[in-house]
């Protein structure tokens, strides 16, 4: 983590948004996720806007190589394409990527989808509710240990969530797989939605079919005798 990022997080602690920042819980190609706890004395909260006790701090990496294949998800997205130009810096692209994740999560929350709750965005640092408990992150769907009944329920929930995402949130995840779904308290949570696009995106159909194919190949579901419900999205 660079000095600029450390300073951003320190300011969030100083402003009493965060009380404590713990260790890293996940490292991916595009971001590092840390566990943190919010400050119960945060001056910006009310009974109606209470912060989650445990938070995930998603720090998007500011290295160009990590985003070399991601500009297509921004420049062809009507919501962000006007903010992309030939002179757009790497840092600006990363900030847009983080903002896009916040916008997509907020849209998902509004239609009742299970996903991290947005707390705050500051440049390339996104603070969300922590999916897990007591500093232990929920397992990815690929690592979840489910019996047959729970696996069937998880399958149906994933399909229904994909349908709601498409029909109600007007979004396609565009990178959905067993790696981007967390299993917590017998429910599935969609994560990592920076690349999610609207159905009007020129590659929307390709992304949708790829998501469907990825879910059809989830190892947890392979042994189940289930109908293929994708084509009623």
Explain how this protein is built.
- This protein has 233 residues and is of the alpha+beta class.
- The chain is 30% helix and 20% strand.
- It is built from 5 helices and 9 strands; from the N terminus they run αβββααββββαββα.
- Strands 1-2-3-5-4 form a 5-stranded antiparallel β-sheet, with helices on both faces. Strands 6-7 form a two-stranded antiparallel sheet. It has a two-stranded antiparallel ribbon with strand order 8-9.
- The N and C termini lie far apart (40 Å).
- The mean pLDDT is 88.
Structural features:
233 residues, 5-stranded antiparallel sheet, globular, 5 helices, two-stranded antiparallel ribbon, Phosphorylase Kinase, domain 1
The total of helices stands at 5
Give the fraction of residues assigned to helices: 25-40%
Largest sheet: 5 strands, antiparallel
Question: Ranges with pLDDT <50 over ≥5 residues?
Answer: none
Structural class: alpha+beta
In total, the number of strands is 9
Rg: 18 Å
Overall, the morphology is: globular
Percent of residues in beta strands?
15-25%
Distance between the termini: 40 Å
Mean pLDDT: 88
Strand order of the largest sheet: 1-2-3-5-4
> How many domains is the backbone divided into?
2
Compressed to H and E, one letter per element, the order equals HEEEHHEEEEHEEH
CATH topology of the largest domain: Phosphorylase Kinase, domain 1
| Corresponding CATH superfamily of the largest domain | Phosphorylase Kinase, domain 1
**The CATH architecture of the largest domain:** 2-Layer Sandwich
Name of the level-1 CATH class of the largest domain: Alpha Beta
Subunit structure: Interacts with CASP10. Interacts with IRF3; RIOK3 probably mediates the interaction of TBK1 with IRF3. Associated with 40S pre-ribosomal particles.
Domain RIO kinase: 1-232
GO molecular function, one term: protein serine/threonine kinase activity
Subcellular location: Cytoplasm
């Amino acid at each position: 983590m660079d000095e600029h990022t450390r300073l951003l997080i320190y300011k969030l602690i100083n402003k009493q948004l965060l009380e404590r920042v713990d260790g890293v819980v996940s490292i991916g190609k595009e971001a590092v996720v840390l566990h943190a706890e919010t400050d119960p004395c945060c001056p910006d909260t009310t009974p109606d806007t209470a912060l989650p006790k445990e938070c995930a701090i998603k720090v998007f990496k500011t290295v160009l190589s990590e985003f070399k294949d991601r500009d297509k998800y921004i420049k062809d997205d009507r919501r962000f394409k006007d903010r992309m130009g030939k002179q757009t810096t790497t840092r600006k692209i990363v900030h847009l990527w983080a903002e896009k994740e916040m916008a997509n999560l907020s849209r998902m929350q509004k239609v009742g989808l299970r996903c991290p709750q947005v707390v705050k965005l500051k440049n390339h640092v996104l603070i969300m509710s922590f999916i897990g408990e007591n500093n232990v992150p929920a397992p990815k769907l690929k690592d979840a240990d489910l019996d047959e009944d729970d696996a069937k329920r998880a399958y149906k929930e994933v399909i229904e969530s994909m349908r709601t995402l498409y029909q109600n949130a007007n979004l396609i995840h565009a990178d959905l797989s067993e790696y981007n779904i967390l299993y917590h308290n017998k429910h599935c949570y969609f994560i990592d939605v920076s690349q999610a696009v609207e159905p009007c995106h020129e590659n929307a159909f390709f992304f949708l079919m790829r998501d469907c194919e990825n879910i059809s190949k989830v190892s947890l579901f392979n042994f189940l005798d289930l109908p293929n419900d994708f084509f009623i999205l």
